[in-house]
Design goal:
The structure holds 2 protein chains of 2 kinds. By secondary structure, chain A is mostly helical. Chain A is built from 13 helices and 2 strands. The chains are: A mainly alpha, B alpha/beta.
Chain lengths: 313, 282
């Protein structure tokens, strides 16, 4: 029967070859590749755009002065190019933000993923994500007109300036809480329920199960969330420009006004630095530095995640 | 083995070797008129049974008959499911398991559980075993506790050289024995097993079954299984559950028959049990 059947099939030879062309497959692949290439191409474009003025900048200003001095004032006369005040301000504000956002964000994530009822989570999570959508200019003015005056009244001994790194850092921290909380919650929710049951069955409380089983199992996702939040904090512009100020005097005290790298770029970029001038090229040099720092941080954290992650499937 | 050469299916009924009667039972759990609800739905209705000390009790029956649900009442695991609630009474050594004063966490420390899918934590073998003693504040030499638990679970020789390796590098059968070792490490009184071999191959299954025989000297074991041969091989007593549709058209799990395993498999008193074990149903 089967032999008879086989003879009725046309084209016995090469019958396993593709019977008709599948152009759709090719088109889909091309579209997907293009989509993937857009972000890569943008990154490469940014690097190229940054590179040329940066190289020109370092032809005029020595690397030794850029990294060896704490005197910053490229728009002044005579100009000074010691970048440390900007680095200190950026790192300090980012640190304050992380100190605020990581504990609160993680606590919120643990609550949402492990403690909240289904209904609470359904209400709470979108609200949290709305917080991520608040324009940062709002946070900036809130820091400037509410938080700073409040702190000056409550803690006069802090001796806060009208614009200061502390208030800016706190609000940058509030801004990135939803990033930490929402992404951490996603990765904690993805931890198989069997792990929780295994822990409960050994007599572990909810708290111990959350902290010793769920968080470690979701660790790589949590670290990724924190890194993304740090990158956002380091590059945040509007809050630090409004509430942190532009004064680039070298200081470590967060009660003082200080200018971050992003704030400087915004200030100089919106000012009247003429194209091709040394002040104009400074913007690109600082931009390159910010890019390198963020990139290095992301790379390091990716390595860390690889090393410490607990794979559960 | 047999000189006559008749091929006998490898169903070694453990019951007749150690004949016991229901009356001689030294009860660890006494279940009276237990019903379990998920919200308004009554998943299991009116279960009465007794779990004997240092015995292996098997719970068998078709899917959806409520055997796992009943098992999860013994360590109050159902508390973790929103809307789940148990009605009736379960006495654990004369103490009401669902009494107001009872702390479910303390219950679960005494009554361990092994799950259908091996669920080792994504940590080292050592940390998997040490987890229970640590969270329960058990003092003592942790290295010894870990070695003892792994030895009891017949896993020590296979893993002693890679104790710091991730538990997920073990095979499925080893992972399940690790989970048994993890349960043993907190020195429980009872070990509940929810289809512990359903994800394992026959060789790994045999190892777990042998292990259960070893463990029954020190522990009371309750096992839910889909595998009737397994129930026959390992258990002293067997509870047969089935799902029945009531007058309102709602399905409930019911306990049909509970008796010595030898009796259930050779001379069941209920027609439904007989139909199930002879393969005419389910």
């Amino acid at each position: 029967m089967s032999a008879q059947h086989r003879t009725t099939v046309p084209g016995t030879r090469g019958s396993l070859a593709r019977s008709r062309p599948r152009y759709g497959e090719f088109v889909v692949k091309a579209v997907l590749l293009t989509a993937a290439m857009v972000s890569v191409a943008t990154t490469i474009g940014i690097v190229i755009a940054l590179l040329e003025p940066t190289v020109e900048f370092f032809a005029a200003v020595s690397i030794g002065e850029f990294f060896g001095s704490t005197d910053w004032g490229p728009l002044f006369n005579p100009p000074a190019f010691g970048v440390w005040p900007l680095i200190v301000a950026t790192v300090e504000i980012t640190l304050i933000a992380v100190v605020v956002a990581v504990p609160l964000g993680l606590a919120a994530a643990i609550y949402l993923s492990e403690y909240a009822s289904h209904r609470t989570r359904k209400i709470f999570k979108p609200v949290l994500e709305v917080l991520a959508g608040v324009p940062t200019v709002v946070f900036g003015f809130f820091a400037l007109t509410f938080v700073t005056p409040l702190f000056r009244n409550l803690f006069p001994f802090l001796d806060l300036e009208a614009k200061n790194a502390l208030a800016a850092g706190l609000l940058v921290g509030v801004m990135i809480i939803p990033i930490v909380a929402s992404l951490s919650e996603d990765s904690m929710a993805a931890v198989p329920n069997g792990l929780r049951e295994g822990s409960y069955a050994l007599g572990a409380s909810k708290m111990l199960t959350s902290v010793r089983v769920v968080v470690p199992a979701a660790f790589s996702g949590i670290v990724a969330a924190i890194i993304l939040a740090i990158s956002r904090a380091a590059g945040e512009t509007m809050i630090v420009a409004i509430a942190g100020g532009f004064k680039s005097v070298f200081t470590l005290y967060p009660g003082n006004e200080m200018s971050t790298m992003a704030a400087f770029i915004a200030q100089a970029g919106s000012g009247d630095a003429s194209v091709g001038s040394i002040a104009y090229k400074t913007i690109f040099a600082v931009g390159s530095l910010l890019f390198v720092i963020t990139f290095a941080m992301n790379y390091l954290s990716a390595r860390m995640v690889q090393k410490y992650r607990e794979v559960y499937d | 083995m047999s000189e006559i050469g008749i091929s006998v299916p490898n169903v070694n009924v453990r019951g007749p070797e150690v004949p016991r009667t229901i009356e001689a039972l030294d009860p660890v759990f006494t279940v009276s008129n237990l019903s379990v609800f998920y919200g308004d739905y009554e998943a299991v209705r009116g279960v009465d049974m007794t779990i004997g000390n240092r015995e292996i009790t098997a719970m068998i029956g078709p899917s959806g008959c409520g055997k796992s649900t009943v098992l999860r009442c013994f360590n109050r695991m159902n508390d973790l499911i929103p809307g789940a609630r148990a009605v009736g009474e379960i006495l654990y050594h004369d103490e009401n398991l669902y009494g107001d004063h009872v702390d479910p966490i303390e219950v679960r420390r005494r009554i361990g559980m092994v799950f259908q899918k091996p669920n080792p934590f994504p940590k080292s073998i050592y940390d998997n075993i040490a987890y229970g003693p640590r969270v329960n504040g058990i003092k003592g030499n942790m290295d010894e506790i870990v070695e003892e638990a792994l030895t009891k679970a017949a896993l020590w020789d296979e893993v002693k050289d890679k104790i710091k390796q991730n538990a997920l590098s073990l095979s499925g059968g080893q992972q399940q024995r690790l989970c048994i070792a993890r349960a043993i490490a907190v020195k429980p009184d009872v070990i509940l097993m929810d289809e512990p071999c359903s994800a394992l191959d026959p060789i790994a299954t045999t190892k777990i079954e042998d292990l259960m025989q070893e463990l029954t000297r020190d522990y009371t074991i309750v096992i839910v299984t889909h595998n009737m041969q397994q129930a026959a091989r390992v258990s002293d007593r067997t509870a047969f559950f089935t799902a029945e549709v009531d007058g309102a058209g709602v399905r409930h799990g019911r306990l049909v028959e509970f008796d010595e395993t030898s009796r259930i498999f050779t001379n069941p008193s209920d027609k439904r049990t007989e139909d199930y074990i002879t393969g005419r149903f389910g």
